[in-house]
Amino acid sequence: MRPHTKLALGAIVLAGAAAYLAYLGAATSWRYYVLVDECASSRTELVGQRLRVSGRVAAGSLALAADRSRATFRLCGQHAQVPVTCRGPIPDNLKEDMEVVVEGTLETSGTLRGDKLMTRCASKYEATASREAGTPRR
Amino acid sequence: MRILGEVALLAAFVAGGYAAFACLAAQLARRTHLVRSGVAAAGAACLGLTITLAVLAWALVVKDFQFEYVAQYTSRELPWHYSLSALWVGQAGSLLLWTWLAAMLSLVYLATSRDAGPRPLVAFGILWANVSFLMAILVFAADPMKTGLAARSEGLGLSPLLQHPSMLIHPPVVFLAYAAWTIPFAEAASALLLDRLDAGWTQAARPWALFSWMVLGTGLWLGADWAYQELGWGGYWGWDPVENGSLLPWLTGTALIHALMAWRHRGGLKKLAVWLAILTFGLCNFATFLTRSGIFSSVHAFSQSPIGWMFLGLMAVLLLGGSGLVYYRRQRLVPERPLVSVLARESVVLVSVYLLLLLAAVVLAGTLYTPLSPLFAGRMVQIGPAFYNNVFLPIGVLLLAATAVVPLLRWGAVPRGEQWKAMVVSLCVAGGAAGAAAALGLAHPAAIAVTGLAVLCVAATVAGVLLDVRRRSGAGTIPAILLALRTGRRQYGGYLVHLGIACVAIGIAGSSLGTRRLEVDLDEGESIEWAGRRIENVRLVQREEPDKLVAEVELLVAPARGRPALLKPARHYHLLQDQWTTEVAIHSTWGGDFYTILHAGLGDGRVALTLIENPLMRWIWLGGGLALAGAAVAALPLRRRRTRQGGRLGSHSRLAAVPARRRAA
Question: pLDDT at position B159, please?
Fold first, then answer.
């Protein structure tokens, strides 16, 4: 068998093995990515599923545990809200009225039980529009 | 000053566009009289861009809030060096820096090009077509000289997460890499356009490919270091889409360097080499699209901008046009010699190139899975790190194996008898090391395999260098040995890169497979035993600084063997940004890192902590350094040679492209 043929056969076997391993990895780590409104409207379908939900922390709803191991708040979309209880490392810059992504599982009560919380990037390519220009906060 | 910057940018845009047109028309349409004016216009455009960049940098340092960009990213209390670093934090500033770097590198390329033929000028024209594209975005969509609507007395400040030494240099290094990868692409494209597909373009492209690889590798290294030190989750790589974006051109760039080697030594992998040069530059634009388009929620990018889609469009044009050109020239890209054996060096290089492309394909598939998933899953789906890790682990082990044996292989033939003997000895040493690791308690098969292969890499490299030096030096005297080392510098630089990669593999295996984590609350004076260490909460200290409040816990960490260390993880409250940040404290040894995070003070000196043990972390940073040093050794130019045309080459030789009768006219 020519060297090219041996290498080609080996490449096909490797590519197949890699595709299978990638499929196994995806199967154990996938999650739906939804907005709050969809999470609320498709609740029965999404209960028990592993989700990532994107929304805004409702003003006046954020409560942090003293050791920052837990946060509870309401996550707002355009029309709906979803209550969230999040355990695990809470980002330092978590604030009300901020866009966040919560990863967790939706319970039958409609509460999103999260174990991972991602907040807005550190000013990359876009400054915070909500801050009043020229007025430092104290 | 702002008007000066605006005018300079517009002038640069016009001059740059003319430079691209003139240099391409001079060679492709045989309008050779345009060469001088084209090169001069490029010089003028560089001057204009330098003025614009200097104006913005000055405005940032002096905090001129008349500039909207300055007001968005700085504040009066921000130290000057972080103010200056804001140059590459925002959309417009980072694009301006990238454009300037691309322009400057084009002049360096032309000045250092050793080829007196038309190819460098066509490549120069292509480089300026790219610079003109970037300048068009600056002029029409991201003006760095824009003023704000209202007068401001204070800026919004720089996010505290970006106030870190690694962030001072990580972004400009990455932009330098993106700018540098344009050059191998321009060389390949010009070779295709002019049908000059001899080994000449590979000799010109090789040092630039190595330089770009080194710089991009440094950027990835700095980014991982920043994530490890600053983001405070104990890791250094999260398979974030934007991280993946920069990894893609690094993987294909690695494949390109090896394909160029195969072309040079055996006249093989020609189609792959030209296509990889085009693909790598295309992927730099793809990475920019990922960061600036806003299609991903990522720790790097939450912005939404049409600018990102422009880079995707450019990438599509490059890949379609480039693929078309490669197909058009396919008859000129057939291998000069057949593969003689699977045990020849070029076969192993081919396998490695395909493995690297396989890894790149997996990264690309994983990155694009999320935005494309609604098309086939009905709903957006995201996949986690297991998708990537499942593939990278076995393919990485195979790549490490290929890397390890290369010093004992030959181009165009099976290994010689002495090389076979050296291979057997190296395998025995590696097997012994793997066995010893298993006997000492290493349980994971991948960890044992990586240990064995890393030792194989070292043993085979030492054996390969000794055999090679003996063969080159003949006499065996010290001067002969030194001469052999010097003449084989490029090859040995490559071996050093491979040793660095082996160290990185050791570090990744150790930190990924052996990491441990503990969440604990400790009272003042309380201690615990964990991970072979005694950890004591000495005290919680709070103090006020001009721009922040600091809460810092002193932890005395005493290992079972070795000296105790005092670690001070802290939390900072930044007054202007009204934001907390976590400052981790790490005790690093060659055995591993002990990583501490302070989450909160709970009153009366009690603190909430996370403790992480990351075995062998330091080997990642060492391996990265070795790989970059090896690439630098391999990239250093050899002594200049005189060409067949005669005369020493330099930038004045660009005029050699103009026929004598036209010069006389």
Answer: 65
